[in-house]
Amino acid sequence: MGFRTWTRHVTIAFLSLLIVSMLSAAGVSAAYPDHEIELVAWASPGGGSDLMVRTFAEAAKGIFPVPIYVTNRPGGAGATGMAYLAGRPADGYALLGVTNNLVFTPLTQPDVRYDASDFTPIIAFGIDAKVVAVASSSPFQTLADLVEAARAKPQSVRIATFGVGSDDHITGILLERAAGVRFQYVPFSGGGQQMASVLGGHVEATVTEINEVLSQIEAGNMRVLASATERRLGGFPNVPTMRELGYDVVVPKFRGIVVKKGTPADVVDYLIQASTQVVRTPRFQEYLKQNVIEPAEITGEDFEKLIADQVETFGAILKELASQ
């Protein structure tokens, strides 16, 4: 073998090893995803957060090449779900369905170990409407009726919420302050339980999302007194906003998906691209419309900014609540 031939063989061998080395360095993320993905609902079955992730998993069929299965990790206004995801590997095989309780809960519960900085935002796909709802049999026909009952007898009006420090709770506190009254809050681990507590007469009202009570409204079992939105809801033109009624309370609620911080950048990019496709499917768009959720496609850094803006807007009241 001549020197040139030997050199050529050595060069080819070196380049081959280099290519293999580069592919090896890419590791698992180069083949992502190669097995099923867990999508965590941080609420109990039957609530809005549960429906949200189950619809996403269903709509993802044919877009993600592997199955997405849902598990429920309720408790602590989302804290249990956050802790669960934080304990999983940062490999993109565990995702968490979130709302703005990702911001609210850590700021109001000092014992919560994790906050938004421990997760990488993937996509916020909708903005939800917060409402005050009562049973159809309730004597409260208007928000003014509810407020006046609380004014006449402080803390006599019981309000079901998703938990201490949740956006439900904060909406109630903002209404309290705007109206100069006091409510009594009863925490639950999911929207389904909140709704059941109202229908069972265990509480006078609930602060929740419109989609949590939509089926009961359509069945004639509940009614909405007011919304904490900038403008009236498209599907409920007769429901006034709190601002219209003289209470400056607006609490936009995002819905979306995050992954554990430290997940490889290429996996994050894949999840953003694939999740955006899922959100655009007719099945998911139908879910948004049926549940009166304003569609959105807020991804990556833009989603991070949305979270930071909510920290700035609600941070003071949240920290004050935590110190009580």
Describe the protein's architecture and organization.
- The structure is a single chain.
- The protein is α/β, with parallel strands linked by helices and 324 residues long.
- It has two domains: 33-127 and 253-323, D-Maltodextrin-Binding Protein, domain 2; 130-227, D-Maltodextrin-Binding Protein, domain 2, CATH 3.40.190.10.
- The protein has a six-stranded mixed β-sheet with strand order 2-1-3-10-4-11, sandwiched between helices. It has a five-stranded mixed β-sheet with strand order 7-6-8-5-9.
- The model is unreliable at 3-28 (pLDDT under 50).
- Helix 2 (48-59) runs antiparallel to helix 10 and helix 4 runs parallel beside helix 11.
- Strand 1, helix 2 (48-59) and strand 2 (68-72) form a beta-alpha-beta unit.
- Helices cover 44% and strands 20% of the residues.
Write the layout of secondary structure elements.
Elements: H1 3-26, E1 37-41, H2 48-59, E2 68-72, H3 79-86, E3 94-99, H4 101-108, E4 119-128, E5 130-135, H5 143-152, E6 158-161, H6 167-179, E7 184-187, H7 191-199, E8 205-209, H8 210-218, E9 222-227, E10 253-260, H9 265-279, H10 282-290, E11 294-299, H11 300-323
Parallel strand pairs: 1-2, 1-3, 6-7, 6-8
Antiparallel strand pairs: 3-10, 4-10, 4-11, 5-8, 5-9
Helix pairs in contact: 2-10, 4-11
**SSE string, helices as H and strands as E:** HEHEHEHEEHEHEHEHEEHHEH
Number of strands: 11
Major sheet details: 6 strands, mixed
Average pLDDT number: 88
The oligomeric state is single chain
- Gyration radius (Cα, Å) is 24 Å
> What is the CATH fold-level name of the largest domain?
D-Maltodextrin-Binding Protein, domain 2
Helix content: 40-55%
Shape: globular
Low-confidence stretches: 3-28
Q: Name the strands of the widest sheet in spatial order.
A: 2-1-3-10-4-11
**Span of the ends, CA to CA:** 84 Å
Q: What CATH architecture label of the largest domain applies?
A: 3-Layer(aba) Sandwich
CATH class of the largest domain: Alpha Beta
Pfam families: TctC
Keywords: Signal
Protein name: ABC transporter substrate-binding protein
Family: Belongs to the UPF0065 (bug) family.
